[in-house]
Amino acid sequence: QYRVVPLKDAFGTGTEWNKFEPTIQGKTLTATVRIPAGGWNRLEIRALLGEKSVATATVEPIGVGEVLVIAGQSYADGANDELMKVEDMQGRVSAFDRVKNSWQVAHDPQPNIATGGTIWPPLGDLLLPIVQVPVGFVNVAVGGTASRQWLPGESLYQNLARAGTTTGRFRAVLWQQGESDVIEGISTDKYVSNLTTIREALAKEWKFSPPWLLAKSTLHPTVYNKPEGEGQIRAAIDLLVKQPGFRPGPDTDILAGENRGGPKTRRHFTGLGQRRAALLWFAAVWQELQRKDAA
Fold this sequence. Notes:
It contains six helices and twelve strands. By secondary structure, the chain is of the alpha/beta class. It has a seven-stranded mixed beta sheet with strand order 8-7-9-6-10-11-12, with helices on both faces. A three-stranded antiparallel beta sheet has the order 1-4-5, with no helix packed on it. A hairpin with a 4-residue loop joins strand 7 (about 95) and strand 8 (about 100-105). The radius of gyration is 21 Å and the shape is elongated.
């Protein structure tokens, strides 16, 4: 039998004792059960002989919540000025370590990416009290990468494919990328083709088609000033979000001035810019969660 017991200040409800049918191979017991969304909780398991408990086990904390996969380049990576911390005292905003195959509280620096600050801890803190379930991030972003480097056959594509397969079902891909394509002068049509190819190939590998939320992320004011190139990528995103499988993400290009670091910084978002970018991402994710077809 199993039951789920809410820990202090948990979201959601637990369960009473319920039977489950395990598969036993050698000394390994495996089973899958459905439990209510929420957390943090404690999972308790017991084996009965008649009415007598002969073995018990527990694990905590566990949660059932929203999982978001992140891909793109430096603004999604750990390239920003301030190391952010999850403010939730229960640590219910988590990041997946793909090397250790384990979850951890999503404080910066995040696992498996660059060691600077990100926009994801404040996004998780914004989502948490609204969605009232734990929030998990799986980040495979790599700074300085162009869309062509995420195409099938490339190592970045393989990283993203493995991340999605390991995670299982998740809510959406958060895509924040475009600066390198501006530098390379990629046309609108080519960017549309690249992202369509990437998404369609991954949907086949994952065996489901999560939506891709596309940020408009073309501005890098301390590195270049290319309005025409920026416009080409922004136009590509406008076209993509009209296609099935893509949705509008935030327009983080509106965050200029004090939101961007200067030459003596990491030259990406300042702490203020990170928090404002998180707020823009919150609006986009929340809009996705309000869709009638959102499970």
